[in-house]
Amino acid sequence: MTKQQSIQTDAASAVILQIPLEMLSISDLNPRKAVSEAHIESLADSIERFGLIHNLAGLMDEDGKVGVVAGGCRLRAIQMIAERSKTHPFTTVPVKLAADATEAEDWASAENAAREDMTPADEIRAFGRMKERGASVPEIALAFAVTEARVYQRLALAGLPEPVLDALAAGEISLGTAKAFTLSDDEALTLSLLDQVKDQAVSEAAIKNALHPDAIKATDRRAKFVGIEAYEADGGTVTRDLFSDEVFLASPALLDRLFAEKLDAARADLVEKDGWAWAEARNEAWLNYYELDQMKLARLYPIEGDLTEAEAEDYDALADLANGGVLDEDGEARLSKFQAILDGDYSKDQLAHAGCIILVNGSGKIEVTTGLVRPEDKKAAIEAGILQAPQTSKSDTPKSPYSQKLVADMQAIRLASVQAALLAKPELVLDLLGFGLSVASGSFESVFGIRLDRPTNAPSVEDGFISEPRLEHGIDACEYWQKGTRVDDLAEAFAAFREGGKKARNVQITEAIARTLPHRAGGPEFFGLIAEEAGADIRKHWTPTAENFFSRVSAGHLVDLLCEFLDCDARDEHVTAFAKLKKAEKAEKMEKLMSDPTTQKLMGLTPDQKAKLDKWVPDCT
User: Fold this and answer.
1) Average pLDDT estimate for 143-167
2) Residue 408 has what pLDDT?
3) Across the beta sheet with 238-240, what order do the strands follow?
4) Which of 56, 80, 114 is the last residue of a domain?
5) Whole-angstrom distance, CA of residue 257 vs CA of residue 278
6) 525, 441: one domain
7) Is 80:41 a contact under the CB 8 Å cutoff?
8) Is the pLDDT of residue 585 over 70?
9) Strands 56-60 and 66-70
């Protein structure tokens, strides 16, 4: 219950009478008007258990009724007890009566001003004394109108050496510092450290570390991996902080042994159950890729599977439902099955010639790097056809990550960008036309023998591609016949055409001639010159997406691209997390990285890297 200071009164007016409960009410002079119901209920429980410790104070009117000016909460609690219990003891209540209204008002003001909560040190000692007398935690909570959690915390502090509580009472240490000392069972160490921290700005963490210099937090990756229950079952001791969620493991050697045993068991399973030729366990929390390079390990990847046409349609439908959050459990199982096929798996030959490295990451989870071929196993792996022989000639080039169809699509997209750029350069078009028809280019073709070819300038996958409408008019003669647009009177059509004027004529010439430009006209260098002078920009007409590009290259190439975009190597935390994703997830992530500001922020892109992404095109155009 709240500690209160006794009301000081003149002896002549210090009259205490037993007043019938029904004659009592809260006086208008009582300054405490708003009181929580929970507080009154808690106070009522306390009074029922321990009785009324402090009397009420009030002013009696001429009818014998008393208005309570001090102790309004106690009166409300007594009234609550009377309402809920027919056998309550409060038929009358002791009330100190004031001589007049002035004295009553002074009492009301004095009690309200003098009310003061107990200091932490006083509360700790008071709770401790009640506990020593046999009071339970609920009883202490009732007596002081506080929560049981607060009692438990204060009782934990009550066990501290007296000098610590004295220092707390004197303001030489903070309550947080006192809480940190509860982790110590060594009184000599506690008192020695107390002398060092009095009147000093020392953090709780520093005190905890000084009390348990060898203790390991339960948030340590080794503790997470082993598990607190397993650690305690093997005899390990822990210290739990009542004032936070922190748990400290006091036996580092035991934890290290359990960690090594569990990690080795997981390593053995990779060989005995999963079928790898070898497996190596590492104590580090991350893989040192430089060290792997020094070990000259080769890397194998799972063999990606293919879906039938019907399965692919089913997969797309399930993926749409999943994206909409309406996929049921059976659908999720089917989608996972299809995804597993697409992700592929290692073959028996790959397992027989390769191994893996296993470690526990910073989150306490196992990470396995698979498909590693040691130098001494490379020859056998090459003979088995699962590893490509090293290139011995400088003329040898690595296998392109792009399929022929993807290359053709990207070339069509580049052509579309150059043709579209030429539309804004009619003089350049006419220069090219004149040059191409003249002997200066080595051509002897007649102007009237021009053939308006229509090279492919649209990709097979149109997602992310924006065509130029002015380049779509050049349909072939068959389409003219089918659509009934054949011109019957050429003379009349020609006259109408000429009435449009030279500007309209030049526009038609520019559009028609630009549409005939083939990919890499005149060779790569000359075509590059045309593209540069026209100001062609592929990204004005095409944006890389999961559908049109990223899903059409290998998962390994996607990892390489991410390293390129982030200007980092494969050891970067973003890259290692990306490498664990399924291929479809990788493609989706790369699409978002291209255009989604949230993803770019999460991946830590700099303004320069964003600018590079806005201009990036694959090197197969």
Assistant:
1) 82
2) 81
3) 216-217, 247-249, 238-240
4) 114
5) 22
6) yes
7) yes
8) yes
9) antiparallel
